[in-house]
Design goal:
Two copies of one chain form a homodimer. Helix content of chain A is 34%, strand content 27%. By secondary structure, chain A is α+β, with helices and mostly antiparallel strands. Chain A has three domains: 260 residues, 2-Layer Sandwich (BirA Bifunctional Protein, domain 2), CATH 3.30.930.10; 99 residues, Rossmann fold (3-Layer(aba) Sandwich); 71 residues, C-terminal domain of ProRS (Translation Initiation Factor IF3). In chain A, the strands form five sheets. Chain A has an eleven-stranded mixed β-sheet with strand order 3-7-8-14-11-10-9-22-23-21-20. In chain A, strands 16-15-17-18-19 form a five-stranded mixed β-sheet, with helices on both faces. The first copy, chain A, starts with 17 loop residues before the first helix and ends with a strand.
């Protein structure tokens, strides 16, 4: 028992069972533990450290663009949730209700926030007075609760962590600009930090946020060709403001309703990272958001000077600004290799007696297995360079996967035939009618992902109804 | 309306009504807004920015001492909360219960976490295997809910933000060391960041945390002489581990129960900062945790070059590593002075046409009103030095207030007489019996704050019962 070394954990291969592979990675890489309540999970240190890195990338960009963090209450009175009609219809069926406080039944039941538009509106109604107070650019880091029937770690939880930005503007134009500015920040973080290429676009009315005038999205593609929504940004017009009686005195002394946006990105994106970059050996993390960028593994630790050399190498890498750690545990190097591969650490540095004698170490890339031997005098520069290369290569591979798996269909039959293979996205024209969207779902099984900003002309007509097409649209199976 | 300038807001003086003064500061300094649910508040950008600064000071120290952040579920099944007898007795009467998920009644009701010991224990029971996994040093940033009857912003909310550290160790000694190590981090952050001197000590059994073997505290004194608990650290022994069936295989191959700690510090400390440093002009913030350290106020902005000079000064201060902002709003300088005093900004820089002509500006200290004129060539060095002086002076004033308001009593009558004046702490000896503690509460109205680490010999006997004293103890009225 105590003397027994841990066994290398095996995971299901992606080909054999993609869903089981995903679950295996999530648990064996020590990202998540299940709690006794379905859909509520524990984010373990390694999983949470990934989220902290995503947080810091986003938070920095939010602050650079003038946003301030706030904290709204956890609970929303039922009457407040009901103030905006579309919003309550969208969320009420899936909220958790607090009905008792201590031993007493509450006079009005309170829902655990599924999203906080109503709370921000209540607050703004209190504090907004004049045009001088605008814009109000707020963000909140928190968890929200949605009582889903089916749940999967990161992808669909009854509770998940996210940020929700909420802003208020004097004019519709400013609010619309904000909506797109924040979508661009999501695209930037997805592409440049998570190495996940995205398709920017607008959601159909069917798929938009409950209560929004327009919802924009960045859509990603997973290894299995399915879509994952990376982040969404909503323009509300002045609908909520009017429902919540929010107004301000404008420069011309008239009372006006302000215009509103909200935008959110959640821990779902960690599920996206796993399914964009992972392989049959486990997680593969992009260096920018990896909690540990380089793991130093000493070979033959019992030999004099090896542990010291490993620690010294780790210290040098840390001093060079890299997130490095050394694995001095009493497990075998083979176990350590496998375990650190499972955790997706981008770069492994091996150092043993022979390396030390030659003043060298071996660097091994997690993403493609490439090995090089470098002088210890040059290792920091080499490791830093390799991490940049890894980040770029990971993005490029994901980009190629995405773009080689978007298929264009001019007819309904073509679209249905592509969907039968259940691989990738389908691009068609669309007339803009809900009926055609529903028919695609019913017959082909795919939902609309977005009307991409990057519009193109495929044919003149909607392939479903044959009427004149208004735009091109992307369809897919989705998480 | 639109053309109308804002009026300087007046607040109640501390002498007139301390409680009202506190409420005025909390709202007029824009820290808090009330929601429609009693005890649930909005932390506005300025209030939350203070918390972010406290968070970053603590989080850095937690990580330096090897702790990792995690995220546990928000909800605890009733059966899980009940596993540790003392713990459930302490918390069950004041929790909020979720009983419905969507339209359906839940099979078991779930409480919104009032604290997360039970969740950490459930997780550890899943993942702990061998001595190699120990210690587990975890921390969580989150909000918790306790359904209090009386509520006050920051001081007592039905929801509040905090961090809760939870650790597991192979031996009792290690766990005890951890408990005191974390208490020392709280003392460090209170004294060196919040400029709040503390008394370190141990809580009596009556005042300790539900389920703990020992609770340690750092106690602060407010302007009105009342006590506020700055942070607490608990040693649990192996009680929870046994209740939750957590064990590990030790080096000698035997199964053992691990030893546990938890420790927490909350947004209550912001209430403490307000009541330690505030004055009749509003908030006074210690520079280390002030969201804005220097506010630059241009005088006569309509004159050519003034706004530019103010912005350039602000840029120079920012480049020098200070948190500076410039107030270019169209309010009068007088309004700006008052508003930035209300917000407790440590240093004000005034710059007008005459200053510009002389290449100077005026720096004004928030804490004592001291004004100096400095050359713009030297302003960054001067401001940085003044902020350090302010931080030190604020600590010293609070230290003097604390130590000049601790009164020693050798007899019960003396203690009761001091308590009648309702000012400051009372130090006596104590026999250790609950009965004497209850009698002090009943007759003198004070509760035990702690048995200070810094023990002294006042007399041989307990002033309440006359029996042999075991230790010295500090009493006070408390928030």
């Amino acid at each position: 028992m105590a003397g027994e070394k841990k066994q290398v954990e095996r995971i299901t291969s992606m080909k054999e069972d993609f869903a089981q592979w995903y679950t295996d990675v999530v648990t064996k890489a020590e990202l998540i533990d299940y709690s006794s309540v379905k859909g509520l999970t524990v984010m373990r240190p390694y999983g949470f450290a990934i989220w902290e890195n995503i947080q810091s990338q986003l938070d920095r960009r939010f602050k650079q663009t003038g946003h301030q963090n706030v904290q709204m209450p956890l609970l929303i009175p039922e009457s407040l949730l009901q103030k905006e009609k579309d919003h309550v219809e969208g969320f009420a069926p899936e909220v958790a209700w607090v009905t008792m406080g201590g031993e007493e039944k509450l006079p009005e039941r309170l829902c655990v926030r599924p999203t906080s538009e109503t709370l921000f509106c209540e607050h703004w109604q209190h504090v907004l007075q004049s045009w001088r107070d605008l814009p109000m650019l707020y963000n909140q880091w928190c968890s929200v609760v949605r009582w889903e029937k089916t749940t999967r770690p990161f992808l669909r939880g009854r509770e998940f962590l996210w940020q929700e930005g909420h802003t208020l503007h004097a004019t519709a134009e400013e609010a619309k600009e904000e909506t797109l500015r924040m979508l661009e920040i999501y695209a930037d973080v997805a592409e440049n930090c998570m190495a996940m290429p995205v398709i920017r676009g607008r959601k159909t009315d069917k798929e938009k946020f409950a209560g929004a005038e327009a919802t924009y999205t960045v859509e990603c593609m997973m290894h299995d060709g399915k879509a994952l929504q990376g982040g969404t940004s909503h323009y509300f017009g002045d609908g909520f403001a009017k429902a919540f009686d929010i107004c301000f005195t404008d420069k011309d002394n008239k009372l006006r309703a302000p215009f509103q946006t909200s935008w959110g990105l959640s821990t779902r994106t960690i599920g996206g990272i796993i399914m964009t970059h992972g392989d049959d050996n486990g997680l593969v993390l992009p260096p920018v958001i990896a909690p540990v960028q380089v793991v130093v593994i000493p070979i033959a630790t019992h030999k004099a000077g090896v542990a010291e050399a490993a620690m010294s190498l780790c210290g040098a890498l840390t001093d060079a600004g890299l997130r490095a750690k050394v694995d001095l545990s009493d497990q075998s190097p083979g176990w350590k290799f496998a375990q650190n591969e499972m955790k997706g650490i981008p770069l492994r540095a091996e150092i043993g007696p022979k390396d030390i004698a030659e003043n060298r170490c071996v660097l091994v890339r997690r993403d493609n297995g490439e090995k090089i031997s470098v002088s210890l005098d040059d290792v920091c520069r080499a490791a830093t360079g390799m991490l940049t290369t890894i980040q770029g290569d990971m993005y490029k591979r994901a980009y190629d996967h995405l773009h080689s798996n978007i298929r264009t269909a001019s007819t309904f039959e073509e679209a249905v035939a592509i969907a039968k293979n259940e691989i990738g996205f389908i691009k068609t024209m669309w007339c803009g009618d809900l009926e055609c969207e529903l028919k695609m779902k019913e017959v082909a099984g795919v939902s609309s992902r977005c009307m991409p900003f990057d519009q193109e002309h495929i044919s003149d007509n909607c392939p479903v109804c044959g009427r004149e097409a208004k735009c091109s649209i992307i369809w897919g199976f989705a998480y």
